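note to self — DONT lose this again. spent like an hour looking for the file last time. sequence + predicted structure for the chain T wanted, 95 res
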Amino acid sequence: HARMEDRALKEMLSGLLEVVFRHVSVENEAKARALERHTDALHARMETMEHHLIDRTQQLSNCRFNYFLEITHLRNQLYMKQRDGEKFEPEEVYY
């Protein structure tokens, strides 16, 4: 939902700026173009950062899940050791 709202706001703002700049001339066109390039670069960097955040969030989620699996396995190993006593042979497992 947030992406749809962001897209709608961006389209509305672009349309509004287009109308304003069509009827109002910019005093310093070179500076305006430089600011526009700077804004585009910042926007591209923000998109990159969002992709990195999504990627790191997914990695963290996978780490948590694997940690849960490993803890569950270790608990099961302790239970089996208590149950089997000296006959118990531990399994070395990595997730």
